[in-house]
Amino acid sequence: MYELKIDEKTCETCPTFDCLVRCQYIDIDKDTAKTEMKKMISGEDSFVLHDCVTCYACEEYCKRGNHPFYLITDLQEERGILPMPKPLKTQFVNISVPTRRDIIQFYGAEEPVISLCLFPQYTRLFSEEKLFEELSIIIGRYFFCHLMYLHSGNPSLIRERLPKIIDNIANHGFKEVIFFHDECYSTLTSYTTAYSIEVPFKPIHFNEYLYNKLKDQQTKIQPLNAKVAFQRNCSARLTPNVEDFVDDIFNLIGAERVERQYDRENALCCGGIIRGQQRYDLFVDVQTRNVDDMLNAGVEYCVFQCPACFDSLSEKVAEKGIKPIMMHDLCLLAIQGSDK
Ligand code: SF4
Ligand code: SF4
Fold first, then answer.
1. For a Cys staple, 137 with which of 9, 57, 105, 200, CB 3.0–4.6 Å?
2. What is the 31 CA–ligand 1 centroid distance (Å)?
């Protein structure tokens, strides 16, 4: 029902084929990229469909408004190419069946509201911490965006379930919803746009909310004066337009995002999905290069946006003496001791 909007002519006249040429997991030159892109646009098989680790990055590498990664995932499903083992795919499907009743907690006014996705462990932030007070919360599978099926070869399930999820949120009458998990925000902006799925409320990225809250309390900030690495998560590749909030937050709290090889558009995956694909040599290689790069840059903290990236990489960075920390906890460090 929902068709991907991809402009074939734009690809035919593309001067760079950067979507594939810049891929950090498939070694591919421009001529080969051109041939493989042509095949995929025609719906044919390509080695790219088999070798892709589903890092999402080609969506960001394409500067011409096309959707190479969404095309790859749709073709993987059409051709029965599974990026991860079947039992894991089944587990992915089962853990997010939207059968439970929604959970809503109202603090003060009904809006602003934040969606905590499937991360109930962060509820305390919005009832106890000064930086986050008086937000209403929605949480649970009734509100889960389902974008993770881009990793498991069954993206049609996103399109099947997402309109109902959007209704579940919209039926409460919210005009704006802050999304704690970057992946939900990317779903409701990038993915819905690519497939012409209507979203009747305004999605707000958590970092925009965080930045504005910090600005409001700027006098209470005690600059951290710390060097940090930022671990970009896969869904950040879908919405680079909000990436500036990361730097704005770091500037406010005195965190220096040091220059390093594997940051920004050249970021490496946390490794979680690659491990799930049972590509263990690549998993070790990617995590080792990433953490060594942080070490060489002399960082004190590795800052995570995504709880899944934290689970995947935090132990490895901690082993090397770098402190793993979630973005919101780093912000709390900068205002702790003010009036708490
Ligand atoms: S998807 Fe974008 S970068 Fe890739 S060939 Fe098409 S226009 Fe070029
Ligand atoms: S999603 Fe990542 S691994 Fe797959 S083709 Fe795009 S850049 Fe390469």
1. 105
2. 13
